[in-house]
Amino acid sequence: MRQYYLILLAILLVGGALVIANWRLTTIDQTGENLPEISLSNLPTTYCPTEAEVFHTSNQLSVAIVAVSNCRSISLSTLDLTSSETIYLKLPHALGVAVEYSDRFDRYIVTPRVGDADNNNIINELDQSAVLEEMFESSSRSDVNMDNQINAEDLALTRINQAVGVNRPDGVGWTL
Amino acid sequence: MKNTRVAFVLVSIATLALLVGSAILQRIVFKAAESSSTVYLSPTNFLVKPGGKVNLSVVSNFSIPAYVASAQFVISYDETQLSFEQGVASSGFETKKLKTQAGKLFWALTPNTKGGVVGQYDQSTTFGQLYFLAKQAASVTISVDPELTVISAIDPTGQSALYNAVSSVQNSVGEVTALATTKVVGQDSGEFIERSFTNFLAQRAIKDTVIPLVNSAVSIVRLKDIGKIEINFGLTESLGGVVVSTVADSSFVTTLSGLQSNSRYYYRLKVLSEGGSPLVIYPLKTFTTVATSKKAVDPEKSELETVELGNNQARVIAIQRDNIGNITTQPVSFAVISGEVVLTPASLGALSTVGVESLINSKQPVEIEAKSANEVIGITQFTLEPTTQSAATGQSAAGQTLPLNRQTLMILGALLVIILSSGLVLARLHRVH
Hints:
The complex is a heterodimer of chains A (176) and B (433).
Chain A: H1 2-27, E1 37-40, E2 51-57, E3 61-69, E4 73-75, E5 84-90, E6 97-102, E7 107-110, E8 122-123, H2 125-134, H3 152-160, E9 163-164
Parallel strand pairs in A: 1-7
Antiparallel strand pairs in A: 1-4, 2-3, 2-5, 3-4, 5-6, 8-9
Chain B: H1 2-27, E1 37-42, E2 45-48, E3 53-62, E4 66-76, E5 82-89, E6 93-101, E7 104-111, E8 119-121, E9 124-134, E10 138-144, E11 150-154, E12 162-164, E13 166-170, E14 172-176, E15 192-194, E16 205-212, E17 216-234, E18 241-244, E19 249-257, E20 264-272, E21 278-281, E22 285-288, E23 303-310, E24 313-319, E25 332-338, E26 341-348, E27 351-358, E28 364-372, E29 375-384, H2 406-432
Helix pairs in contact in B: 1-2
């Protein structure tokens, strides 16, 4: 009787291991070149920033403009990070966010709010006005979703994502 | 002891089934709940006297409830025939921007819902009214730009993910004539009448597939109701080539010929009325013609396309591809697996096809198999019916698609095993006790 329970336990363990392995294989960056990294998710499909402003507080205050690869990945490997600290991040036309970094994890999934047309780290009526001013015109400064046109989608982003972004802890404004 | 062994085996099976089911379910990506809409100007057909008012509603017909954050409509008209008077947002919407330039009207609106920025809209939603003045006797067309018209909606299951709900547009055509004497049907226009407005929204394309070949492409279009189609195509967005159906029908298999291989083509489908006037205009799409292949057929990449023609007839098209997706032209043999039908082989450009006709005058399921070099490249199942019917689209009432493919079958199989195993274990334990 006992042997049956042992076999059953073994099946459960093997099955569980397979499920976990399957999950890891489908989520982990196989190359590992960019790790640790911040992975940007749930953004407009056309939104493709090339750079991000990153501020962190390792040994001394440090701010850097880092490249965004494939529109969605920001490698932290070049930053001099301690084992645990807060990283502040700002993307163009998006609100600033804070990420609690720990060297125990390789990937941080971040969803910035897009719609900051005037890049003042607040999405409000002023951003709506900025988009409306350029809508149906040839200008493209307020193209918040980066699809090379200012249309109802940009307007929608300034409406649904209204909020105030995280500021830099040194009190200096974001440059992006 | 024997009961314990049986119970153990059944519990093991159930456990394995649960693990397999879990692994499969983990890979399922639930399709977003996106609505699609046809934007049209109502009425779509009108008569008005010179100097009379033309009052058109801007309407969107949503397939499922849509959560709209903003909308923009770009509408073209001939300035020599019509002058734009004003645009008035419906209650529930507010105009954010309205601009006219060179015969084009640009209109941005948002919901004015109190306490929120998104409005939920269902079925037919009127965004506002447009008022024009008819200048002189002429045939006029007021058209909705299918590329620039956007209804920006939120997928409630995808957090803040936005999508454009506009999938097609429909123009409004009218006649400015002194003969238009009939009095009001519309709202405030004393010389304005509606006509031919009944049931037009029922008409649309429920299938629009293009199979790119080497120097041609085969378009398969199925309409909700009988009508005609026009396909414009070309190497640039200005298109240039055109194919127009000559007879009204609900299914069309059209060859776009004279194409260059390995080239990207633009095309636009227009659904016409039986009389030939445009009813629904779909946005620009693209396809890429392929290169000739002399490689072996890859059954995994090959497929069968079935066109149900109504009146007990259908056509099965075999699309043979090599391992990189290029078209191959090996001979194909078709065979009936089930159904009382007669097969008539034919060719469609580089594709092998077969006509299928029922031998009985009642509804029957049919299964056809296609082989190339003695290897099965596909099996298709469909239903033949005596009268012309719209084919089943596989779409549920909620508007979500559940394709009957290998993955779906695996999920259903796993769930069936779990249910059966659980039932057996419970029955066994009940007997033991």
